[in-house]
Write a structure and sequence with these properties.
Length: 159
């Protein structure tokens, strides 16, 4: 369990930790891969969430997924980009937490992912928690903890 003092320095406020849905670049399941490719390259994202028409979280799409879909052993078939829908090839195994998330769960997932999606109990997309935000907090913690608190080393007794 993460102590309250550490949590306070790591996360200034949970509301600021979650980047809200309206500020996150997303694509729809029915968008073509051409649309997803344009978004990924124009905004320099590695991966973006995929939502259905009701704003429910359905998956993730990335440049590698798109390229693997339009490539074969001899060529890259760019003409397929507009024919294939994001929902046909998206990754449906993605990290997500609900709005009442535990910080420990988020930290564990961010080890292997650049961001974690946040959904409500019905699966509606609410935003993301980025590894970048946690690293900012880690930097703050590393620089401020001993300035704010007296730290003494505990004596460890061997059994």
């Amino acid at each position: 369990m993460i102590g309250e003092k550490v949590k306070k320095l790591l996360i200034e406020s949970e509301s600021e930790l979650v980047k809200p849905a309206e500020k996150v670049a997303v694509v729809g399941v029915k968008n073509g891969l051409d649309h997803a490719l344009l978004l990924l390259t124009t905004d320099k994202y590695a991966v973006v969430p995929v939502l259905d028409a009701r704003s429910k979280m359905r998956g993730l799409i990335s440049m590698p997924i798109i390229m693997q879909t339009i490539m074969d052993i001899e060529d890259v078939h760019f003409e397929k980009l507009s024919e294939i829908k994001v929902g046909e090839v998206m990754d449906t195994d993605y990290p997500a937490v609900t709005e009442d998330f535990e910080l420990e769960d988020v930290l564990r997932m961010l080890v292997n992912h650049a961001f974690i999606t946040v959904v409500d109990n019905e699966g509606y997309f609410k935003g993301i928690i980025t590894r970048s935000e946690i690293l900012k907090g880690t930097n703050r913690l590393a620089h401020q903890f001993e300035k704010m608190y007296s730290v003494t080393e505990k004596e460890i007794v061997a059994h």
